[in-house]
Amino acid sequence: MDMNEIKEIFFQECEEQLAELESGLLRLNDGDRDPETVNAVFRAVHSIKGGAGAFGLDDLVSFAHVFETTLDCVRSNKLEPTQEVLKVMLKSADVLADLTNVARDGGSVDQARSAQLIRELEALAKGEAPPAASASEPVAPKAAVAKPAAVAKAAPVEPVVNEHGFAPVAFSFDDFGGDEDDAVGDLPAYDIVFKPKSELYTKGNEATLLLRDLSRLGEMSIHCNMDSLPPLDQMDPETAYFSWKVSIKTDKGEDAIRSVFEFAEWDCELDVTAVETGEASDAATDDLPMQPVPFDLSALDGDLDVPLGVVEEEEQIAAAQEAAAETASNVVQMAGNASRAAASEKSVAAAAAQNNAQQASSAAAPTIRVDLDRVDRLINLVGELVINQAMLSQSVIENDSNGVSSINMGLEELQQLTREIQDSVMAIRAQPVKPVFQRMARTVREIADITGKSVRLVTEGENTEVDKTVIDKLAEPLTHMIRNAVDHGLEMPEKRLAAGKSAEGTVKLTAKHRSGRIVIELSDDGAGINREKVRQKAIDNDLIAADANLSDEEIDNLIFHAGFSTADKVSDLSGRGVGMDVVKRSIQALGGRINISSKPGHGSVFTMSLPLTLAVLDGMVVTVAGQTLVVPLTAIVETLQPDAAAIHSFGATQRLISIRNSFCPLVDVGRILNFRATQANPVEGVALLVESEGGGQRALMVDAIQGQRQVVIKSLEANYTHVPGIAAATILGDGRVALILDVDAVVSASRGQSLQLESSLAAVG
Amino acid sequence: MTYLAKNLTNGGRELIAFRIGDQEFCVNVMSVREIRGWTPATPMPHAPQYVLGVINLRGAVLPIIDLSARLGMKPAEPTVRHVIIVTQVKNRVVGLLVEAVSDILTINDDDIQPTPDMTSEFERTFARGILAIEGRMICLIELEAVFPHTESEAA
C-alpha cells in the first residue's frame, strides 16, 4: 500500500464525513437542537481536519480549523445556531468539500469565497454578526492552491502567504528544537550516496520523499550530481540520471538512515559511510564540485514557494540555463523545489504526462465500492445456502441407504460449490488490519514531528483478519487514540530522560484474535494518566461530585466522557475533548468494549475488544447439558478424557484435574452457563484444556465432542443483547442456532467473578 | 373495503389480534414482519425466564419471547400449534410466542380506550390501551416495553 492508496482512503472517508456534516447541518437548520447532532457535525469537521493534517493539506486544515472553532462555540452554547449562522456553515461545508476535491483532483477553489467565509466564521466565533458580503475586501490576486499546471512553471515564485492570514507552515530544522541545534556539532556524521535506478520511479517511489524523510533524522546538506545528464536531445524521459550526495549529522545511527531507504533499497545504489565528527561538513564541501545547497524543508511543503536564494547560489546552473533553458529550469526546480524532483528528471512535457497518467491510473483502480448492505445480504443468503445444502445432504443420506446414487454425487459437488462460494463471499469482507496500522504509522510520525517528541511505533499482528466494517470503523478511533497517546501520553524527551526512560517513546499497536473477538491493544510507555488532574477536571466539568469516592479504574474511565479533555490548551492535534468519547462510541457501535489500564510513570494500555461480526471461526462443536455449543478452536490446547483417579476435590466445590503432574482447575461449562443445577460427573464427559487471555489454563468440562467445523459467526447483539459467557451465535447444519462460547468470560467466571456481574458493569458503563 | 379505506384515511390503523390463554391482545400490523410456526429455540444462558431462546430466521439470530411469561402470566408450554409473531421495533427484530393469531382489526384511534387507572405493573408497562370489539376486550400492547432490555438501553 503506497501513499496514494492511503490518501485515497482518506478522501473516501472525507466524502462520508462531508455527507454527515451536511445532513447534520440541514437537521440543525430544520430546528433540530439535539446536542448529538451538533456533536456529529463537529466531529465530521474535526476528523477531516485531523486527516488533512496527516497528509499536509494545509489549505484544508486551516479552513477546517476555523470552521471547527466556530462549531465549538455552537457546541458549548456560546453561539445560537440561527438561520444566518447555519447559512454560513452550510456554505462553509461546501467550501470544505471543494477544498477536499481540490486536494484530491487538483484544480482551484474560489479563493474569494473561502476567504470571505473564514472571516465570517471568525466573526461568528467572536460573537459578532456575520459581516455583510459587500464588506468583503478585494481578494488577494494570488491563488495559494496548488495546481498541477504549476509544475511547468520554471521561474521561482515568491513564497505565498495566503490571504487567510495563515502563513504556510514552514518546516525547517529550527522546528526540531533548540537543544538539538546546539548539540548538532557533536553528532556523528554520515555521507550518503544515493543513486536511484529508473525502477525506483517506475515503482512509484520518489526520491524527494526519501530525502525528506532523511532530513528528519538531523541536519543535512544535499548535493545533486547531474554529471550523467545527457543533452536534451539524447535524454530518455523515463531514465533516472541523477544521484544525490548527502551529508547528514544525526544521532539516530546508520540503521535509521538505512531504514529510510528500506522500501527502495533494491532500486537504488545506496552507500552510507560514517564520517568522523567535525570533518564531515568540510569533507562534503571539498569533494563536491558545487556548493551544497542549503536544504530548506519549507520548500517541500509549498509547491510554489521556491526560495529565491537558491538560484543565485547556483551559478553553474544559471549558465546551463542559457544553454538549454528548459532543462535548466528543471534543475532549478530540483534544487529548490525538491518536491518535484522526480519530474525534474524528465522533460516538462513528460512530467505533465506522468501527472496525467497518475491521475488516470488512480481513477482506473480496479476496485468498486459496494454498499455494505448488499454484501451483507449476499453473505446471509450464502449462509442460508450452506445450511440448506447441509440439511438436504442429511435428509438424502437418511433416505438413501445404498449411498451411491447420482443424487449423492451431485450433492457432493453442490457441497463443494457452496463451500467455495462461501469462502469467496467471506473473503470480500475479512481483511487484514494492516492498512489501518500502516496509516497509524504515518499519523505517529506527523504528530511526533509537530509535538517535537521522538516516537517509535511498534505494530504486531498486522495480518489479523477482521471484518471490513470493523477495519473501516477502526481507523478513526485509532487515529484519535494514537494522537492522544503521543500528544498526551508520552512525555517530552527531556522529561523522559529525567524519569530514567529512553528519550524515544514507544507506542505499541497489536492485534490478535481472542475467542471469537479481535483484541486491539494500544500501549504507550509514557507518563500514564494523571489521575489527580482527571479527577479535578471531572469535578470542574460537573461530571462527578467533588466528594465522589472513585477507584483508580473509575477515574481512568472518566476520560471516555464527552467533552472531557485535560489538555491545557486547545491544539491543532487533540485536546478538544472529542477524542475519547468518539473512540468509545465508535467501538461500542461495533459491539465492542474498550478498557484502559494505566500505571503512573509507566504508561497506559487501551484494550479494545471487538467482535468479528461476520468472520468465520474454526470451532469445536460440543454438547453441554443437551445443548450444542461451539468452542473456538484457537482457545483449545488439548482435549482429554478424564480418568477418575485424575480428579481431585479441592475445597467445598472446586475440583482439580491432574494433567502430567500439574493441577488444573476443572470448570463445568454447563454449571457456569446455568444449564444445569449441579455439577456433572467429570468422568462421564470430556475435558477441553483451554488457555485464556489471562494466561492461565483451565479444563472446561463438556459432555461430549461432536466434531470440528467452520462456523459463520452471527451476532447476538443485533436483536438481543450481549450474553455473558457467550461470544456469539452460529447456525449449524440442522438449521438450529448454536452458541459460541466466550472462553475468557467463562474462565474469569470460574475465578469467582460472576458472569452476571460483568453484564451489570457493562450496563453501567 | 370502503370501511377500511375510510378508517385508514381518518387516522385509522390495522392491528393484529392474538390470543394468550383466555385473553386477547393486539399489536400494530406495521411492526409485524411475519408470522411463523413454532420451532424449538436454543436456550440462552442467564436469560430471563420469558426469553425462550434464539432461533434461526433465514440466517439471522432471532430471540423468542414467551409473551405470556413476559406479561406476568403463566409461562407457555410451546407446542406445534403455537405461533411466533416476528415483530420489529426500530432495528431490532424479536419473535413473540403466542397461542394463536385470531384477527386483523381495522380501528380508529378514537376506538382505543385508555387503560383503567390501576397500579399493577402489567398495565403501567405493557398496555397502551383497550379496545372493545364485538363484545370482546382486546388489549393493545406496547411492543417496545415487551422487548428484552439491551445494554445500550440501560447505559
From TrEMBL, chain A:
Keyword Metal-binding: no
UniProt-listed SUPFAM superfamilies: ATPase domain of HSP90 chaperone/DNA topoisomerase II/histidine kinase, CheW-like, Histidine-containing phosphotransfer domain, HPT domain, Homodimeric domain of signal transducing histidine kinase
Keywords of this entry: ATP-binding, Chemotaxis, Kinase, Nucleotide-binding, Phosphoprotein, Transferase, Two-component regulatory system
Top-rank taxon: Bacteria
Domain CheW-like: 616-752
E.C. numbers: 2.7.13.3
Residues recorded as bearing Phosphohistidine in the entry: 46
Residue ranges constituting the Histidine kinase domain according to the UniProt record: 412-614
UniProt cross-references to InterPro entries, sorted A to Z: Bact_Chemotaxis_CheA, CheA-like_dim, CheA-like_homodim_sf, CheW-like_dom_sf, CheW-lke_dom, HATPase_C_sf, HATPase_dom, His_kinase_dom
Domain HPt: 1-103
Its job: Involved in the transmission of sensory signals from the chemoreceptors to the flagellar motors. CheA is autophosphorylated; it can transfer its phosphate group to either CheB or CheY.
Organism: Rhizobium herbae
Pfam family for this entry, one: HATPase_c
Reaction(s) catalysed by this chain's protein: ATP + protein L-histidine = ADP + protein N-phospho-L-histidine
Name by which UniProt lists this protein: Chemotaxis protein CheA
GO molecular function, a single term: protein histidine kinase activity
Nucleotide-binding listed as a keyword: yes
CDD domains on file: CheA_reg (cd00731), HATPase_CheA-like (cd16916), HPT (cd00088)
From TrEMBL, chain B:
Residues of the CheW-like domain: 12-152
Cross-referenced SUPFAM superfamilies: CheW-like (SSF50341)
Superkingdom of this protein's organism: Bacteria
Signal peptide: none
Pfam families: CheW (PF01584)
Name of the featured protein: Purine-binding chemotaxis protein CheW
